[in-house]
Every structure is written in structure tokens, then in C-alpha cells.
Amino acid sequence: MRRLLGVIALLAIAALPFFVTSRVAAVDIFNNCSSGATVNQAGGCSDCNTKATSTTVCKEIAAQNADGSNPVIKVIKIIINVVSFVAGVAAVIGLAVSALRMILASGDSNAITSARSGMIYSLVGIAIVVFAQVIVRYVLKAVN
Q1: Rg (the chain; Cα; Å)
Q2: Which of 4, 14, 112, 139 is the most buried (most CB within 10 A)?
Q3: Environment class of residue 57 by beta-carbon count within 10 Å: exposed (0-12), middle (13-18) or buried (19+)?
Q4: Which residues lie below 8 Å from residue 122, measured CB to CB, with a gap of 6+?
Q5: Taking the alpha carbons of 23, 24, 27, 28 in that order, is the dihedral positive or negative?
Q6: pLDDT per residue over 78-133, tens digit each?
Q7: Taking a C-beta distance cutoff of 8 angstroms, is the pair 26, 58 a contact?
Q8: SS3 string of the chain?
Q9: Are 119 and 93 in contact (CB under 8 A)?
Q10: For residue 86, what are the contacts with CB-CB under 8 A and spacing of at least 6?
């Protein structure tokens, strides 16, 4: 079981770059800053934090912040979604296995008690996954 979880985690980490996409902004190498603004060390205009966002780099930064496509937040959302999906699937599988164990208990009180506790743990796991998703979405919405 430990080996299976390790393989699933390794596959999830290996597949993560396929889900992460980000835009790349070009740097204005000709220093075309408008209204006498100076070029900072990052290659953008020093007036990006003001209302004068006329250069390409400043427009890209403003657009990125306006539509909520911050790459860090995207990665966090993807990681949370993958972890929640895996935990939810594991909880549902645990619930099904516990239900099957309860059906096949044949009146054995110890087996029924064990299956019942497994069902309770699975239901608690599902509830934790749902509440974690709600909390994470609320926090990321507040940060954005």
C-alpha cells in the first residue's frame, strides 16, 4: 500500500508541469518608457505602480494582476485540487471497502465494528476535504 501511494504521488508530481501554464512577458530592450519614466532593473518602467502603464511590460503586469492569473496562485490552486482529488478518491474507496467489509461480516460483531469505524473515518475524510476546499478557495479569493 505504501508503494502504491508513493507511485501515485510520484506520478502526480511528474504530471504537474503539464497542468501549470503561465504567460511570459517580453522585456522592452529598447527602453521605450513613456513620459520620461526610467527603466528599472527588471526591465520594466519605474512607473508600473502608478496609473501610467503605457509600455508593454507594464500592461502585461497590470493585465496579470487584473485577471487573477498570478502564476503562484495558479500553482497553489492546482496543487490543492490534485491533493483534494486524491484524498477524496481515497476516502470514497475507503467508504466502499468498509461497506463491503460490513456486508461480508456474516454477523461477526468485531468485523462489523471495524467496518463501521472505517466508514466513519472515510466520511470524516470526505468532510475534511470539502471544508478544506472551501477554506482554500475563500483564502485565495481574499488574496486575489
Answers
A1: 25
A2: 112
A3: buried
A4: 91, 92, 94, 95, 98
A5: negative
A6: 888 888 889 888 989 999 999 999 999 888 899 999 999 999 999 998 999 889 88
A7: no
A8: CHHHHHHHHHHHHHHHHHHCCCCCCCCCCCCCCHHHCCECCCCCECCCCCCCCCCHHHHHHHHHHHCCCCHHHHHHHHHHHHHHHHHHHHHHHHHHHHHHHHHCCCCCHHHHHHHHHHHHHHHHHHHHHHHHHHHHHHHHHHHC
A9: no
A10: 8, 12
Q: How many CB atoms lie within 10 A of CB 6?
A: 10
CA dist 52 to 15, 36, 99, 102, 120, Å? 40, 11, 63, 68, 58
Among 93, 84, 77, 98, CA closest to 127: 84
* Cβ–Cβ under 8 Å, residues 95 and 119: yes
> What is the reported pTM?
0.51
Residue 112 has a pLDDT of 92
- The alpha carbon torsion through 93, 94, 100, 105 (nearest 10 deg) reads 170
Identify whether the C-beta of residue 80 lies closer than 8 Å to the C-beta of residue 133.
yes
- Can you tell me the distance from the alpha carbon of 143 to that of 2, in angstroms, rounded to the nearest whole number? 36
